[in-house]
Amino acid sequence: MLKLYADFNCCDEQGRIWLNTVGSLKDIKQHENVLEEGMKVLLYMTDEFEVCGTLVFEEIWLGIPDFSTIRYYNSDDAPK
Questions:
Q1: How far is 52 from 50, CA to CA, in rounded Å?
Q2: I need a labelling partner for 54 at 20 to 30 A (CA). Which of 27, 40, 44, 47 fits?
Q3: Mean pLDDT of 29-51
């Protein structure tokens, strides 16, 4: 599964993550030939967590996160 950087603070009112930050665009550039709407990817924040997500395209790539799949990289960061 492809991993794309996602800044979870950059989202729309529907909770979709805008994948237009420097980190996201760098990852997208590496995989731009295989990305397609509906594709399942891992959306990650460096050194924090990752979640499965679904890609959509509306002028920019957006990720729809599935927070039921969240995995913290450091178990000390997970909510208790």
A1: 7
A2: 47
A3: 95
